[in-house]
């Protein structure tokens, strides 16, 4: 006959199980912290290796598939990225960031119409996802629809202040392509006022600004010589 544990023993067993579960949760959290650190340092392959372990442990975690897909996207492995984004969406059809990332993957592959389709789906789920509005604006610009790109970036700006530097930068570049150089210069300068020192977008905007200022400065020098 199997002995029945007393109430105190049963409580001890439950407490031990709870402790083990807590340790496991902390372990998962610790792995995610390491993944973020590796990704921030550009060590995408290391991040992928850790995500492999995490997914083996949590095979139904849509967020981890999405994050691994993002790492594959960073190293331009679009097939693997697409596989992971599709898996994330299959596991969690309401995960707006997975549609956004899949849209980015399509955009990198030159399939801009599919990119827009995924951004629209992401916005249907979460219309306050500022990153999606920005990505959609950039893609509309790539499609040559400059007015709609500007309008979309304006909508992104209305959502919040988190990505204002990037929004002004992309709006400035769109205006540059439209030939509105004064507006472009103004937006680039606004972007630089929001972007922190050393931010990856800062160098990009400075190059864009130098490109638009070069002919203006050259023309000014010519006029001063006369």
From TrEMBL:
Superkingdom as given in the UniProt entry: Bacteria
SUPFAM superfamilies hit by this protein: TPR-like
TPR repeats: 62-95, 96-129, 165-198
PANTHER family xref list: TETRATRICOPEPTIDE REPEAT PROTEIN 6, UDP-N-ACETYLGLUCOSAMINE--PEPTIDE N-ACETYLGLUCOSAMINYLTRANSFERASE SPINDLY-RELATED
The keyword Repeat is annotated on this UniProt entry: yes
Protein name: TPR repeat-containing protein
Keywords: Repeat, TPR repeat
One Pfam match: TPR_6
InterPro entries in the record: TPR-like_helical_dom_sf (IPR011990), TPR_rpt (IPR019734), Ycf3 (IPR050498)
